[in-house]
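G.,

No rush on this.
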Amino acid sequence: MSLMIWQDDLDTGIEVIDEQHRRIVAMINQLHQAQTGASALAVSEVLDELVDYTLSHFAFEEELMEEAGYPFCAAHKRVHEVFTKRVSEYRMRYQAGEDVVDELKSMLSRWLFNHIRNDDKAYSEQVRRHLDRFTREHQQGGWLSRTLHRLFPGHSHAH
């Protein structure tokens, strides 16, 4: 697998979400690099970080959709849950000594790009309108930074 390249049609127009998606793509690429470096420790560290970050991203996305009153929030959440279960299975197989990294990488990249293009694009309009309205009322900064700090402790955020 070659490195994943970000494509413009993946932008949702919600800066904070796009930033998180780009980070996940960068981590999948890091996984690829750790693997070609053939250090099992590096691979497992990147894998753990990728899984943790993705879960935080999902939680953030779900809260954002709920905040905005997005009607298909529950369905989107189920898609996240199914994906999370699949990744956990890969992680267990990896820990059991199976060589699943190639399979995992292609699953991740296919899934992520599809999910962003379809499921995430579906909520982006409503969430963006909600955030714009919020921004005008000057409260959104508070909610957004509180939520980001809670879900992504230790990461600095560009606002």
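When you get to it, here's the other one too:
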Amino acid sequence: MPRIFFNGQAMVGGPFHAKVADALVGPARTAPGYRFFSIDDVCPGLLADPTVETAIEGELYDITLEHLRDVILPGEPRELELGVIELDDGSACLSMLLARGELERGIHREITHHGGWRAYLATLGRTA
């Protein structure tokens, strides 16, 4: 089964976690080299950037390709696209990335310095 790194609303405590709860492997972090953006404070997106040393917190899941196709991807916003990232242990996995051209639009708040979605939501007085 492919592994996918979730770093937003599908994590434990998030509104979409029930769709993937039985596939949870555990907490995970990206390797250094990722920026992090808020999409309208609804969900986050990663962006690979080898010039930064930031690692982003999230959770790792084992899901089937069918579940990814039929359940996960149809619910993702158009600002995100499926890609492959590196985890802090050097392994590769799937994740939702900021779609090509989205950075150039200049409308998504960079939240990299928070290190994760939960930390960012806490600054908004939210947990999910």
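Residues 3-123 form a domain with the Hypothetical upf0131 protein ytfp fold (CATH 3.10.490.10). The mean pLDDT is 96.

Enjoy the weekend,
O.
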